[in-house]
Amino acid sequence: RNDIEVSISLFVYGILITIPAFFLNTYVGNILYQTQLSESLIGSFFTAAPIEEGLKLAVMYFLVYKMKDFNEPLDGIVYGVSVSLGFATLENIYYVYVLSDYFDTSSMTLAVIRSFSAVPAHGVFGAVMGYYFMKYSFVKKQNNLFLTMVVPFVLYGVFYFFGYVWDRNCFYKPWGVKKGGVPAPGVGERRGAGVA
Question: Across residues 6-12, what is the average pLDDT?
């Protein structure tokens, strides 16, 4: 297979992991929102970041690492971005076509705002994951597998945490449109539901 076919197949795996991410984020979020933990921390560091980045890492570790096509260092970054953008694709279809009515805004407005925030963020997190995964695979094992998960997790958590902090009066997922069409970080489903 050529690199384009591999990237497309990994893009599809990224789409597929959105489904368990939705259910895991919802389940874990519903449990954690019954605690005294900060909603900002729950929505960023305790649900979406570890679940979504963990599922992306699972694709990288259990599929990419064993592929004979994974034979050049740059492949790590390309494949990490492919998985992440596959994930972002289905997630944003859900936001744009399902949640736009909930937020009383147009699908187009929601799509434009997320195209400048959540979509590139997933791409960056995937590139960082791919970089450390490449180092793990081609340079030295040591701490690089650990960094493959931790660095994107921290970047994701910080990115979404500030979305929650920016609008503490809402229980929305970050970076979209608040009810009434006001641009604000803090869009998504109510507490503990779905993907970020």
Answer: 97
